[in-house]
Amino acid sequence: xxxxxxFLDTQQCLQLxxxxxxxxxxxxxxxxxxxxxxxxxxxxDGSVVLDEGAASDLVQAVDGAVIAFETxxxxxxxxSGWSVTVLGRASVxxxxxxxxxxxxxxxxxxxxxxPEVVTGRRLASPxxxxxx
Length: 132
What we know:
Strand content: over 45%
Low-confidence stretches: none
CATH superfamily: Electron Transport, Fmn-binding Protein, Chain A
Number of helices: 2
Number of strands: 8
Mean pLDDT: 88
CATH topology: Pnp Oxidase, Chain A
Distance between the termini: 6 Å
Helix content: 10-25%
């Protein structure tokens, strides 16, 4: 079997994630797995932060729960690229207004995923993958 992937360390994963704005959150909804595309950012402490509507099913399902988050880039033509997954416990808090301690919009909250496990891998193009 060809080695067509390289595992990434936590620092490499966070650097790659910092350049992205969209990922997928994986959580449980009514005892079933759910996957939802979301916009995100990485805080300086490495937390994944999502802005969501306070009444969304996602907010109700994830507060205090262990969830997964994935982002990456894969070339559709040759399958090369990378993927990063973050696992951890989520917390929900009011979204502060920029530059103040006041809440910006009562309808918006922040979901913060505190990373406990960060894994990633880079996928080589089949043309550049090493031969066995």
